Amino acid sequence: MLRRAGISTATLYRGFDSKEGLVAAALERRQRAWIEVRDAAIARSRTDEERVLAVFDALDEFRARPTGSRWCAFLGAAAEYADAPPEIAAAVQADTDAFRTRLSALVAPLVDDPDALADQLLLVITGDLAMRLRRPTHPTSTARAIASALLAQASR
């Protein structure tokens, strides 16, 4: 990263209070990029169910980007620190909360208990992201099928 940016370690850290501050800033940037891809996929959808399932299309789109990665930067940061520093813990929690809130809003027109379904979908998505460590090229089709079944089961 330093070589690509053409800067020294000291220059890189000058803008941050600590290595953890740099990681937190990178996570926040990553979250903004993810939200852009996710919301674009949702906007292309026509029905409420398609909007929910578009999240899985967005996961594949995000992974395929030049800046994509094998798995989730937030899961990686959470796994890296047994007791995460406050700035990293806050970034991970903010991403989790924002994603859960977005999922709940997406499923609200379809189910009586959107928060419960959002929790289930978040678990499916997190599991899918974690599976990328075992099978990096595996598409999200299995997670999408589980989400579709959960939607069908919970629908009004």
From TrEMBL:
Pfam families for this protein: TetR_N
Alphabetized InterPro entries for the sequence: Homeodomain-like_sf, HTH_TetR, Tet_transcr_reg_TetR-rel_C_sf
Keyword field: DNA-binding, Transcription, Transcription regulation
Keyword Nucleotidyltransferase in annotation: no
GO molecular function annotation: DNA binding
Origin: domain of life: Bacteria
Domain HTH tetR-type: 1-34
SUPFAM superfamilies tied to this protein: Homeodomain-like, Tetracyclin repressor-like, C-terminal domain
Protein name: HTH tetR-type domain-containing protein
